[in-house]
Amino acid sequence: MTKPAGSPPDSPPDSSGDRTFPRGAGPSGGCPACCRGLLLLPGHGHPAAIEALERRIAQVEGQHALERDRVDWALALHEGLPDQIAAYQTARADQAYWAGHAAADPLVSVVVATADRTGTLLERAIPSALAQTHRNLQIVVIGDCAPAATERGLAAFRDGRIQFVNRAERGPYPPPGRDRWRVGGCLAMNEGLARSMGDFVTHLDDDDTMEPCRVEALLTAARQERADFLWHGLRFQLPDGSWMELGNGALEVGQVGTPSIFYHRYFARIPWDLQAYRASEPGDWNRLRKIKALRPRLHYVPQVLASHFADPSPPPFRRLPGSASWTTERGAERHAGGCRISPTAPPAARPAGAPARRPPSARPRRHG
Q1: 108 within 8 A of 138, measured Cβ to Cβ
Q2: Suppose 202 and one of 119, 257, 262, 285 were both cysteines; which one would form an S-S bond, judging by CB atoms 3.0 to 4.6 Å apart?
Q3: What is d(CA 364, CA 139) in angstroms, rounded to the nearest whole number?
Q4: For residue 247, how many other CB atoms are within 10 A of its CB?
Q5: Which H or E element spans position 71?
Q6: Cα(first)–Cα(last) distance of the chain, in Å?
């Protein structure tokens, strides 16, 4: 994050006027003049100056963490979360809350939202879900006005655990750009949450993969740790094709994403917020921040259990002829065939505490 305008200036120089070192670590602090300017070069720098700089960095990091927690709590108050915190803690104290943990073969809902990436959905994501060693799954695939080939391809798997629903229209989402990236697909994700019947819920992007042992490993950890919200390491592909690993054990923005979380079904009632972009928050982190505020029993599994692939050629956005709506080139091709792309002005989001809508029946079995 860049330093915002109006931030306090750096520490003033020491009495010598030398700005090379932190206050108290310049020449008057005992550093010889020969090492001026070499503080940040590998193999150089006076030990006292380096120690002072490290202490200052640790102090700034601590202050940043404190302010982040204060801002998160201020947002929680604004969003009405204190009442939800009390309701959650009451539910958690009931033994019935832990039925899924005690079940011999709990149902796990895997929620997948998809739009234009039919190929990777059918070739990569769904096969990795079907390959799970834990077999009692409900794989909920929600098309965000996806092409007809998506339904045909899913039907070809001939697996009753797959349930597909295609939204008649896409959006409304913000106009293309960073705001669209922050919340695009969240309405389809909320539809998936509403249809989840599992004791536990997890997610998979339509172009990503899970390790075959992922669900089984997370269920084992949930039982052993009596945790109701878990996450794990994630392989993340960069645009140049190289890979890095995300996950430092902290539930914080930049270290966790939707493909790496696994949680008690209670949290399915907390939806993605279409308005999250107005606070410059990614929709997934906006939701995770709210779940974190409820203070569930958190547990990090230090294993890389999923891979997030970069899209090598994201389709360009364009305005639909005679409309204020924007879509991708592929989406525009379907528009003529009956897929409606909604206007970009987003409606008010469903209140965070509203209960999730559930279908009257589902083929997979859920304990209790």
Answers
A1: yes
A2: 262
A3: 9
A4: 21
A5: helix 47-78
A6: 46
Report how far Cα 77 is from the mean position of its chain's Cα atoms.
Answer: 22
This prediction has a pTM of: 0.73
Q: What b/e string do you get for 98-125 counting C-beta neighbours within 10 Å, with b at 16 or more?
A: eebbebeebbbbbbbbbbbbbebbbebb
Q: What is the phi-psi region of residue 173: left when phi exceeds 0, alpha when psi lies from -120 to 50, beta otherwise?
A: beta
- Here the tokens at position 167 are 């939204």
User: CB pairs under 8 A, 24+ apart, for 326-334?
Assistant: 326/175, 326/176, 326/180, 327/170, 328/116, 330/116, 330/147, 331/115, 331/116, 331/145, 331/170, 334/145, 334/147
* Residues comprising the chain, all counted: 368
pLDDT tens string for the chain (368 positions)?
433 344 333 333 333 333 333 333 443 444 444 444 444 555 555 788 888 888 889 888 888 878 877 877 777 777 878 889 999 999 999 999 999 999 999 999 999 999 999 999 999 999 999 999 999 999 999 999 999 999 999 999 999 999 999 999 998 899 888 999 899 999 999 999 999 999 999 999 999 999 999 999 999 999 999 999 999 999 999 989 999 999 999 999 889 989 999 999 999 999 999 999 998 899 999 999 999 999 999 999 999 999 999 876 555 455 545 544 445 444 444 443 455 555 554 444 444 444 444 443 444 555 54
SS3 letters across 113-168: EECCCHHHHHHHHHHHHHCCCCCCEEEEEEECCCCHHHHHHHHCCCCCCEEEEECC
Q: Do the Cβ atoms of 81 and 293 come closer than 8 Å?
A: yes
In order, the DSSP letters of 266-285 are GGGGS---TTGGGGT--HHH
Which secondary structure element, helix H or strand E, spans residue 186, and what is its range? Answer: helix 186-194
E-strand stretches of the chain? 108-114, 137-143, 162-166, 169-170, 200-203, 209-210, 229-237, 243-246, 261-264, 298-308, 317-319, 326-328, 340-341
CA gap 271, 196 in Å, rounded: 12
> 10 Å Cβ neighbour count for 298?
17
DSSP 354: S
